[in-house]
Input
Amino acid sequence: MSLTPLQRPLSRRTFLAASASTTASAVLLAACGGERAPSAPDPDATPVAGGTLRTALFFDPDNLDPVQGGFAFPVFQRMYGYLHHIDGHTLEVIPDIASGFEQPDELTYIFRLRNDVHFHDLPPVNGRTVTADDVAYSFSRLTEVLNPIDPGFMSRRVDSVTAQDAATLRLTTKQPFASTMQVLGSFWYAVVPREAVEAFGGLSKQGIGSGPFILDQFEQEVGATLRRNPAYYRAGLPYLDGIEITVITDPNNAINQFRARALDVNATPLDLVRWEGLKGELSGVQSNKVPGILDPWIGVNLRRPPFNDQRVRTALDLAIDRRAMIQTLAFGDGRLNGPIPWGNERWALPNDELEAFYRHDPDEAATLLNAAGIESLQITHRVTPALPLGEEIGTMLKEQLRPLGINVTIEVHEQNDWINTVILEQNFDTCGFAWFPVLDPTVSLRFLDKDDIFSGLMFGFDDPEITALYNTMQTKFDVAERYEAMAELQRAALRYHGPVLHTFDSYAYNLWWPWVRNWRPENTELNFYSAEHWLAPRS
Amino acid sequence: MRTYLAKRLLMLGPLLVGVSILTFLMLRVAPADAAVAQAGLGATPERVEQLRAEMGLDRPYFPISFRSSVPFVVFNRDDQYTDWLFDALRGDLGTSFVYDAPVSEEIADRLPVTVELLLLSSLFTVLFGVPAGVLSALRQNSPADWLVRSVGVFGISIPGFWLGILFLLFPAIWWGWAPPAVYEPIWRDPVDNLQMFLLPAIALAAASAATVMRLTRSAMLDVMHHDFVRTAQAKGLRRRQVVIGHALKNALIPVVTFVGIQTVALISGAVAIELVFNLDGIGSLLFAGVFARDYPLVQGLVLFIAVVVMGMNLAVDLLYGWLDPRIRYA
Output
C-alpha cells in the first residue's frame, strides 16, 4: 500500500518544495507579468543534441502515479503524453497527443488523436500506438482515486468519456464547465497504458508513457534517471540524452551542489534575502524572478459563533495588516493575494483593486465588533509546521488583533495530528492553511464551491449565492466573459470574508547555469513537459 | 563465562519483547494514526475509517484488553501485536506502508550506508581521539595540551548536524566543491564513496572523538603515575616503549569499551547527519517512517536497532573482560 504525496500529510519541507514547484503553475500563468527578466545567454544559438541535465528535487517524489501523485510531477511529466497542454500566459492550447479538438456544444468535446504517438518501447506495451481507449481509461482512473488537487472534475463534472474509434475521443460534461480544457491540461491527466497499470500493480514505482523521456530508474528518496525516447513523435526531440533527478531534501545541500556545479539547475527557488546573498558569489549564473511561491492564508471555521457573523469576519479582515506581513515575512518582496493568488495573473484580481480592498482599519473593525456585541474574543488559531508560514502569520495575527481585545492563542500541531484533530474534526476557530496555485485557476476557487470537500466539510462554507457565482463562472466559455465572472466571484468572496482570509505571496528567484539553454523556470510546469531544453558545453 | 553468556542471551528475548511492546504502544498513542497519514488532506472521516479497516488498524492492539466494567479482562483474537510479533519471529517484519515493500528489504537496502557511516565515524573517533588524548596527557599543561583540550571542548559543544552544515557550506563557497549527492557503494566507486562519507563521518565523530580524547587523557594521566610505569622507566626502557607498551595499553581499557558503546550511540546522531548530507541510511528511513506513521517500518527498524544495540553491548562487555583479566563474569 503506498502513500500518495497529496493524500498524506505534508512535511514542511515537502510542502515548501511542492509549493515552490507548483508555483510553477502559478507562475506559469503569471508569466505575463513584466517583472521577470529571464536571461538567455545566446538565444540564437543552434540547439545541440546530447548531454545529461542534472537537476534536483528537494522533496521526495514518492509516487509516480499521475492520478495519485502531485509532488512527483517534475519526474512523471517528462515521461507521459497528455491530450494537450495549456499555455498559462496566452491560454493557447498546445497540442500533444490530440492534434485538435472541436466543441460542438457546451457539453461535448471531441478530440482527434495523432496516429504517430507510441508508448515507450518497453514490455508490456512494446511501443504500441496510443489510442483513444488509452485516454478514456487514463481519465477513468481519476474517478477511483482521491486526488486532493483535483476538485473532482471526473467524478462531479464529467458525464462520460468514450473512445469513438482509435483516434477519436468524446468527452461530455454534466453541465457547461468552462475549465474543462484547462483541467485536461493539468499534470495529473497523463495518458497511461492499461497493460502497464495492471502488470505493475499501479504506477507508483514504474511507468510507461509516450512522452519525450523514458524512465530508466526510480528510487524513492533517491531520485530518478530518464533517458531520451528515440521514438518520440516530434522528430529530433528531445535534445537531451537524459535527465538525472536527485532528491536532495536539505535545501542548503541543494544550493551547495548547485554552487559546486554538480547540478545544472538550482531546483530550490530562493527568497530575496538568500538571492541577494548569493548573486555576487555565483558569477555567470542565470536567474529570473517569478511571482507567487506560496499561498498562505487563514481559514475561518464558519460553523463556530461568532465567525458565522459576517461583521466579525469583516472586523478580522480589517484588523489584519497584510502590508506589515509582506514587510516582515517576505522582506517587502511580495504582493497581496486575492482568492486567486497574484502569481496567477491571468485570472487574479488587479493589484490596485486588492490594494484598495484590503484596508487596515482597526477603528472600523472595533466598531463592527461592537455592533456584533463582541467585547472580547478568544480565538484558537491552529497551525502545523507542515504548511508554510502558518505559525509566523499566526504570530502577526495575534499581535494585530490584540488591540481589539481579541486574544489569539496559537496552537502548533504535528502534521498528522493537525489533519486528524483540527481539520477532520473541524476543531478550530481559525487555522493556518496554504494551497497550491495550479494551472487551472478554479482550483484556487474551490473554497467558494459549497459542495467541494474542502470548503464544505472543513470550513462549513454553505453560501448558495457565491456557489451560484462559481457555477455561473463555469458556464462562460468566452475568455473575457469568464474573466469578468471570475472577478465577480472573487469580489463576492472578498466581501463575504470567508471561509478564507487571504494574505500575500512573495517572489521567488530561480537559478541555472548558462550552459542550460531554453530553460524558462517561469513556466516551470510547462518546462517539465518540454523536450526542447539543451546543453551547451559546461564551463 | 559460558553461563554469563547464556544468561545474557536469555535476557535478550524478554528485552526485545519489551522494546517491541513499547514501540508498538508509543506509535499507537501518538496523535493521528497511519490511516490519517495515508488519507491526508482532503479525506473525509469515512475515508479514514475505511482505510483504517483496510490496514487492519481497527483491530484490538493486544491479545488482552482491560475494561472498567465486567468483564474486566477481555481476550482478543486477531489482535495487531500478536500478528506482528509472530510474523517477526518468522523473520517477516511486514510491509512498509510508505515504500510498499518488505521492511526487511528496506532495511537491507539502507543498512550499508549507515554501517559505513558508523564505521568511518568510529575510525575517526579513535584516530583523532586516542593520539590527541595521549599527546595532551604527555604534555600536560603545555600549550599543546591547552590546544587539544580547547578543540575537545569545541567538538563536544558543537552539534554534529551544525558542523555538517558548515562542512557542506564552506567547501562549496571556497573551492566550489560539494560531496556527491548520490550514493555509490565503496566497491563500485571508492573515490566517490569516500568523498561522500568523509565529511559526514567527521561531523558525526566530532563529539565522540573529543570525549575519547578527554577519556584517554585522564586515563593516561592516571596510569602514568602507577608503579609499573615507574618501574618500566627505572628499568631504562625508552619513553616510547613505556608509553605505548605499558601506559597506553592499560589506559585504553576504558577507552575501548567507551568506543564500543559510543558506536551504538552514534546511531542516533546518524539520523540528523544522514538528513543533512542526503545519505539514504537507516536514520533517514526511521525519520520518514515516524512522520508517515509507517507502523511496520518503525517497529521493524526499532527492533532491528535494539538487536544491534544489545548485541554491541554484549560484545563490549565480553571484550572488557578479555582486555582486563581482573574482570570476572558472574
Notes: The CA atoms of residues 212 and 235 of chain A lie 11 Å apart.
